[in-house]
Amino acid sequence: MHRIDSTLTEARERGVFSAAAWSHGTAEGPSARGLVGTLSWDGPAVEEHSRWDLASVTKPIVAIAVMSLVESGHLTLDDTIADHLPDYAGTDKATLTVRQLLSHTSGIPGQVPLYASSPTREEMLTAIRELPLLGPPDTAVVYSSQGFIVLGLMAEAASGLPLDRLVAERVSAPAGMPDTAFGVPDAQQRHAVATEDDPWRGTVVQGQVHDENAVVLGAPAGHAGLFSTLADMEQLGRTLCAEGRGRDGRMLSPAGHRTMIEPRTDHLNLRRSLGWQGQDATLSPAGDLIGPRGYGHTGFTGTSLWVDPDAGRYVVLLTNRVHPSRTGDAIVRVRRQVHNLALADS
């Protein structure tokens, strides 16, 4: 048994999650991979075609689509929100830019449970527009799901495409990710990995998005809602290791990829590039062995993708650490262990 399988099996025995899938490799393909556990605590074994709720790993995938729109001239990084969303003209967010939204330096609050007070899509979009900024832009990194919801709306307005089609055409298709999409087809829902026994919905969530704000928004959103398989996430890792060259075409040019992963906030409290986390000084989810230009993202449900561009390696870890409850933080150390084992195995 691979040491990563052993580590994840031990974590499952401690109740950290019921299911896990992992892979590490290069642009040429996986070096090692594995599946552990069951779709739910009393469910069938996790399989290759099992669908995982990526949660906030949706954000960097949307960011790739946005960078593709920059390459095609539909957007520039200095475009403002009001340039594309007229409803924001005259608000405190009118002059915030694509660059600031991507790097979480806009000042828009994040992690706000708007679903509790805004039960319809229109009410939630109004609430986001009216959220007071936490401070001036470019003065702090403040992780903002609400900022990425706005970014997704901007991408739709600039491209004339709904976000699901934009991501499919600009990311999934060239990278070779046929099973990555917003939501899960009805016929595949029983193959999805269970997430929370959600008191808000009164049931165990399986095959539907875990994020409550995304549920209220209904349509695809920029902050959460994508589902994927291990094989598709491997393809994304491989494509990023190849500077945007995917199995079925170019996802990004080398220049676009380089611009996306360049650290932008080293003068602030956290390292961020355009849509991605960087390697922070302590307690990085990427572990201890990733290189200084490493970048990646985590998802609240227990998912992550990290890339070391200097070593040319990716690491995918998919779990359902919110099943049956979102309480507990044991996944933090497990993530670091898995990344250390994967990068030492290269």
Automatic annotation (TrEMBL):
InterPro entries reported for this sequence: Beta-lactam-related, Beta-lactam/transpept-like, Diverse_Enzym_Activities
SUPFAM superfamilies the record matches: beta-lactamase/transpeptidase-like
Signal peptide coordinates: none
Protein name stated in the entry: Esterase
Organism, scientific name: Aeromicrobium chenweiae
